[in-house]
Specification:
Layout (H helix, E strand, L loop, with lengths): L2 E6 L4 H12 L3 E7 L14 E4 L3 H13 L4 E3 L6 H10 L5 E3 L5 H16 L4 E8 L9 H9 L4 E6 L6 E7 L4 E7 L4 H14 L6 E2 L1 H10 L1
Parallel strand pairs: 1-2, 1-3, 3-4, 4-5, 5-10, 6-7
Antiparallel strand pairs: 6-8, 8-9
Helix pairs in contact: 1-6, 2-3, 4-5
The structure holds nicotinamide-adenine-dinucleotide.
Amino acid sequence: MALKIVVFGISGKMGEIVKKLAHEDPQFELLGGFNQNSSDFTLLEKADVAIDFSLPEAFQKNLLAAKKHSTPLVIGTTGLLQSDHDLLHKVSHDIPLFQAANFSLGMALLKNLSQKAYKMFPNSNASITDKHHVQKKDSPSGSALELKECVPHATISSIRKGEEIGEHQVFFELPEERIKLSHTALSRDVFAKGALRAAVFLEGKEPSLYSMKDLLEHMLCT
Ligand code: NAD
């Protein structure tokens, strides 16, 4: 049976792509979605999983609506505040949540390799750069912040230019050598596909907060 999904931020750039991909794949049935004018969230009751690609201002309202209707939620919205993360952890005791600042598997690999490089070269000069399109609201990007968790001593610089979908680089400078790890998203489809994959993963799970690490482990073990 198809997985019934609803999307917060359905008319945004990411929401439109999730809609397109869900329509193309019989594995999913898109019931509809919400935008900034929505006030009736009862559609959530019919959904197996909801996906949030909206804006941080909307995040807490969306999360509480998902909780109210006991609908598992995949969260792609970035730029969340500490108070948002606190609520996220609280609500993860009630419903299954999956959060990722970047749903691409390539970015998950970049984080893994960055962590390894940090362990090998803890005394290097390390830096992270994130390049994104000019409409991107949060800076540094959520992915750059996650990379910094892997390489705590790195500095971050963010560039907002043109139509860049998302490029992240991690540099380790040593006196005799330089390591450069890089990931470039070529299409927003990669994020939407990852979010749909996370939705499939989340269905039927126990309440908890899941991440790309859990999804990767699941993919490698099945
Ligand atoms: P966008 O500005 O194109 O779309 C945002 C959408 O949110 C709009 O349709 C708007 O109507 C909607 N919205 C605003 N307030 C709302 C509310 N109160 N309730 C419901 N919807 C509301 O942005 P986008 O490029 O689609 O990105 C959306 C979010 O996803 C951003 O936070 C972005 O950084 C993030 N993002 C995450 C990933 C990832 O892999 N996790 C990838 C790309 C973008």
